[in-house]
Design brief:
The chain is mostly helical and about 425 residues long. The chain has one domain: Na+/H+ antiporter like fold (Up-down Bundle), CATH 1.20.1530.20. The protein is built from 19 helices and no strands.
């Protein structure tokens, strides 16, 4: 146990060093964190072993960090700021998620038709493709102090996108289970995926906001806010364990709703002072989550990537970029959102790997060999896509003219101080 803790500390220290080295080489620090995760994970140096990654305590720790990331997301969702573009976010989320599902599913269904592979496998690829890993793109936001329409749209969309992904994926799995096991996914499960995080976030957010409104001491308020994160994460874990057939609740959504509640109830000056204190911890959450994203990725898969991986990456990219552009056009979003938001939605591992595991578990008996197709394609795509996606996300913000525009206290300096 103590040895695993020492290993984890060593991985974190080396991860910060990789991030600092990447920044010195004029690359995004998040790329350094991803590479560190791969290099130190079980498929390379094995400093972060598979036993650690599989340990329940480690999963709980990462879940708390994801909930903590919600502090950044939720505190940006102040109604007086969002009312001008909130509808745009919902429309774009719908078009880019369903657009991605349609493009990827159609591409693989066509391929599998000619290869005489069950076409429902194409729907599995489409369902998994929706998921976006928000941490890499949001890390670009904090590192390069981005500000503008693309940034403001991305922050809430990053979490809503994963909620849409889980809802569509569960619908797909209902079809798949009907083919492979004669069962279905209950329709109520899709409702619960959204219901539990929202209710938990509201239930914790209101009493915490009452406490925060009574104090102007920024450090004390930060401690109260982080206590709320722990409580929110704990309640979400309990719901995940005792109320769901398998763990699919989104901890980032719980944290976002929780922090959005107090962000809309606490005076802005109290909120800003508190978030300045929280910034270094949120920066640490980003780093650890990205290290965790990189750890299970096997760089050997880059050499083994084939046609399915190429089709998956290209079709998913077309769906995300095209769907985001369509939604932006329909909702009247600024031109920069229409042109460049899709580039910031390319990061993919995280939720996609969880959904892959669920899909594979449903492919039993005579369908088991098809699970290897799903596993190999998504794993290879995750490795290749994460590296490419970081550069695309930064390029998207650069083309939109939003790099270095934020005037608030950014997390980059805090991250550098930690390292």
């Amino acid at each position: 146990m103590w040895m695993d803790f020492v290993r984890l500390l060593a991985v974190v220290a080396l991860g910060f060093w990789f991030g600092k080295l990447a920044a010195k080489l004029k690359m995004p620090a998040v790329l350094g964190f991803l590479i560190a995760g791969m290099a130190l994970g079980p498929n390379a140096a094995n400093l972060l072993t598979q036993d650690i990654l599989d340990a329940p305590a480690y999963h709980q720790f990462i879940s708390v960090l994801e909930c903590g990331m919600g502090l950044m997301l939720g505190t940006e969702m102040v109604w007086r700021k969002m009312k001008t573009y909130g509808k745009q976010v919902l429309v774009i989320t719908l078009t880019e998620s369903l657009g991605t599902f349609a493009v990827v599913s159609a591409a693989f269904c066509a391929i599998f038709y000619f290869m005489e592979i069950p076409m429902f496998l194409g729907l599995i690829f489409g369902g998994i493709a929706l998921a976006t890993a928000p941490a890499p793109a949001l890390s670009i936001v904090t590192e390069y102090h981005t500000e503008g329409p693309v940034t403001r749209t991305l922050i809430p969309l990053a979490v809503l996108d994963d909620v849409a992904a889980i809802a569509v994926f569960l619908s797909v799995m209902s079809i798949v289970l009907g083919q492979t096991a004669g069962g279905t996914v209950p329709g109520s499960l899709i409702f619960l995926v959204i219901f539990f995080p929202v209710i938990i976030g509201i239930a914790v957010g209101f009493p915490i906001s009452a406490i925060l409104c009574r104090s102007k001491h920024s450090k004390r308020n930060a401690a109260v806010a982080f206590f709320g994160v722990l409580l929110t994460a704990g309640l979400t874990m309990a719901a995940n364990t005792y109320c769901m057939p398998f763990p699919v609740l989104n901890f980032m959504l719980s944290g976002m709703v929780y922090s959005a509640v107090f962000a809309n109830r606490v005076p802005s000056e109290i909120l800003e002072d508190m978030m300045d204190v929280c910034a270094p911890v949120i920066g640490g959450c980003f780093t650890l989550i990205i290290l965790n994203l990189g750890a299970p990725l096997d760089y050997h898969l880059i050499l083994e990537a084939g046609l399915f991986t190429a089709v998956y990456i290209l079709a998913r990219g077309a769906g995300k970029i095209g769907g985001a552009a369509l939604g932006a056009g329909i909702s009247g979003a600024p031109d920069t959102v229409r042109k460049y938001l899709g580039l910031t939605l390319m990061p993919h591992s995280g939720v996609s790997l969880v959904l892959t595991g669920i899909a594979i578990s449903a492919l039993t008996g005579e369908f088991r060999p098809y699970g290897d197709i799903v596993r190999g394609t998504i794993a290879a795509a995750a490795v290749i896509n994460e590296v490419i996606a970081v550069f695309l996300a930064r390029k998207g913000f650069q083309l939109a003219g939003e790099l270095g525009k934020a005037n608030h206290a950014g997390l980059k300096e805090d991250l550098e101080q930690l390292s």
